[in-house]
């Protein structure tokens, strides 16, 4: 049984050896994420412009709508094609750094060595599954709520409507639970990106069995640090992220050991995060 204090103590000890390089890795990742996230701002700006320009010609409004849709599609595609492989590379950097001095270039691990499309595929399947689990009950609930509001407008003005709205929000819980069941998939990809897609889901399910609430609480335990970082105009959070990542790296190491102890996996499937092997040039001539 692990404790949050144990993970954080181990993370601090490991991080003391490579903090500033870890900070640089996280900073570059956040900078790229922020640049890509600016697409969402442009989408909102475009939509708001369309709403305030209700008197514009229909052709102009249609152009604004098409531009907003195009920006949304591009933003989603970049998230799948760029951010997910980067996230896997960042996780690999932190896992490698537990054992040896990893290179900054590890951040781009997901783009090299024939790993790219497998990483993109598995992360996309994971996202789709979480979305489907979230919408499976939530969407019918929202549709029912909208039908009730239209058929009986009085509901909107009393407490029963908001109670039903709260209940519909609870229907998102299955997706929330699944997101923690799949929590280890990016780490598994970082360790071995050559397994079958379904195998990643089998492994993460075994690893997180009985651990999902503990993982959720571990994430919550960083809220104090994040709030403190926000008080410093948000800049402080950049210094906390390496600590969070190092802590979750310790968690994966324990979950990996758990899978080994259960006999659910082994070093042939999860070969650990070892330093790169230098090229072999043959024996020197005598």
Report on this structure.
The protein is mostly helical and about 290 residues long. The protein has one domain (about 5-260). The chain contains eleven helices and no strands.
The gist of it:
The chain is mainly alpha-helical and 286 residues long. 72% of the residues lie in helices and 0% in strands. The protein has one domain.
List unreliable stretches of 5+ residues: none
First-residue to last-residue Cα separation: 56 Å
Q: Give the SSE order as H and E letters.
A: HHHHHHHHHHH
Tell me the structural class.
mainly alpha
Please work out how many helical segments DSSP would assign.
11
- Largest β-sheet summary: none
Give a count of the beta strands, DSSP E runs of length 2 or more: 0
Count of discrete domains: 1
Helix content: over 70%
Q: Mean of the pLDDT scores?
A: 85
Radius of gyration: 23 Å
Q: Label the overall shape.
A: globular
Residue fraction in strands: under 5%
Write the layout of secondary structure elements.
Layout: H1 4-15, H2 19-52, H3 58-97, H4 116-151, H5 159-170, H6 173-181, H7 185-191, H8 197-208, H9 212-220, H10 223-231, H11 236-261
Helix pairs in contact: 1-11, 2-3, 2-11, 3-4, 3-7, 4-5, 4-6, 8-11, 10-11
Q: Descriptors for this entry?
A:
single chain, 286 residues, mainly alpha, 11 helices, globular, transmembrane helix, membrane, DUF975 family protein, transmembrane
């Amino acid at each position: 049984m692990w404790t949050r204090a144990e993970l954080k103590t181990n993370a601090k000890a490991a991080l003391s050896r490579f903090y500033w390089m870890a900070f640089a890795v996280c900073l570059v990742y956040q900078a790229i994420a922020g640049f890509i996230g600016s697409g969402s701002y442009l989408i909102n700006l475009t939509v708001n412009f369309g709403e305030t320009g209700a008197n514009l010609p229909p052709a102009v409004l249609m152009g604004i709508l098409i531009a907003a849709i195009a920006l949304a599609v591009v933003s989603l595609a970049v998230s799948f094609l760029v951010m997910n492989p980067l996230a896997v590379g960042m996780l690999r950097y932190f896992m490698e750094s537990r054992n040896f001095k990893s290179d900054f270039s590890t951040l781009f691990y997901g783009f090299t060595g024939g790993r790219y499309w497998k990483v993109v595929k598995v992360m996309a399947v994971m996202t789709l599954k979480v979305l489907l689990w979230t919408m499976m009950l939530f969407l019918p609930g929202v549709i029912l709520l909208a039908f009730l509001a239209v058929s009986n407008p009085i509901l909107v003005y009393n407490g029963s409507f908001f109670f039903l709205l709260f209940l519909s929000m609870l229907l998102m819980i299955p997706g929330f639970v699944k997101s923690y069941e799949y929590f280890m998939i990016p780490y598994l990809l970082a360790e071995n990106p050559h397994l079958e897609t379904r195998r990643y889901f089998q492994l993460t399910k075994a690893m997180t069995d009985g651990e999902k609430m503990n993982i959720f609480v571990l994430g919550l335990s960083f809220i104090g640090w994040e709030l403190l970082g926000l008080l410093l105009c948000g800049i402080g959070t950049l210094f906390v992220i390496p600590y969070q990542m190092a802590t979750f790296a310790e968690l994966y190491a324990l979950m990996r050991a758990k899978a080994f102890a259960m006999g659910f996996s082994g070093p042939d499937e999860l070969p650990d995060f070892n330093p790169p092997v230098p090229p072999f040039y043959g024996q020197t001539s005598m």
